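Researcher: Please predict.
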Amino acid sequence: MGGTITADLEVRRAYEADASGLHMVPDAVARPAEEQDVAEILRHATAGQIPVTVAGAQSSTTGASITDHGVLLSMRRYDRILDIDPVTRTARVQAGALVSDVKRAAAEAGLTWAPDPTSEAESTVGGAIACNASGPRTLWYGPTRRHVRGLRVALADGRVLSVRRETVEKNTAGYPLAQDQVDWFIGSEGTLGIVLEAELALVPRPTSVIGLLVPFQNECEALAFVAAARDSAALAPRCLEYFDAAAAAIAGDADGSRFAGRDACLVYTEQVVEAGQTREDVLDAWLALAESRAAIAEGIQVFEGDAALGRARAMRHAVPATMNERGARARAAGGRKVSTDWAVPYHGLAPAVASARAMAEGAGLAPAVTYGHAGNGHPHQNYIASDAAELERIEEVVGRTLRHVVSVGGTISAEHGIGKLKRQWLALQLSPVQLDVIRALKRALDPSGLLAPGNIL
């Protein structure tokens, strides 16, 4: 098999962890560099009934990219950017290519790939496809699914499929589920096939973007501002990110800023200055809304240009990075970071966060560090369990929170997928009939259940 599989313990331990806080040492690691290597590994695994779990950069927060039995199939070496076509506005890339590298290559043609997971320098295209990744700018551009035109996928038995989006405007041939095969694999977390290559839809890179960081005295005012911005006909935000006071303190420490006081909550937004607008038009509209919504006016910061916008992104990324570090320190005592990515309709975000906070307080837990994609009604709540006992209490509170979220029309997972950590809660959202359909598709494509065992199901 091309020398791509090893059982060396040192190598196996290099692939034992992702961003979930879990650690699982695989039985073997495969590091293919060519399509035929992947196909041969899968044929061998099927013949021997050996499980195979695919991994990219292992930035999963759900344990989806690690395993403690079978082969861990790392796609890190399968990372070429094969083509950028400025005429068709497409990119053809291998699954192991980093999202940030694809963006840099597209930028040379004045284009970009719109999905923007916060950890884009640590996220592969294959991983983004596997969990239908989102990011701050999903508010404007939508998630990964919208930006994938075609895939080349290896099935469990080693067969390779090329699937593409439909181009017809109307289609009544069979069930809708079967019509667009691309969607079988986006969000499937490696359980249905191994993404080898992707044809990505690119969009023009904006020439002028304005970012604003707007501080508020409290969470209620900040989240009311987010809802008002979504409802405004005068504004077109491409992201609306929230930082509670604890998250704002982390971002401030990373940047050396203080953001109008240590107790302030923050909203960060960006808007593209489009044809027919001036930067003053955009700024005036945002400042008017901020003034009407009790923002701390003297603390507002404006970000313009790639360097400044990159600085804002680094501040945002500092929050999950810091929480990951805190979680890692708790591992020796049986603790870890517990991260949620639930979402509700955006008008219901403030009461949903308040409900989650009340549940945590009632259980005697420290408040979760809360931040993220408020414009989509989608916060991240990060708890740090100091030991195994506290971990159990946190998971009980998270379960209660998710039951409430589903009861108000929300989802238990908006962007990180289910993986191994959230499968216990999947039945809160999906009916037995929906779960039966998922299992039927799994049996059709992976009849022996060898791909990514433990993910989703």
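Model: The longest strand covers residues 194-201.
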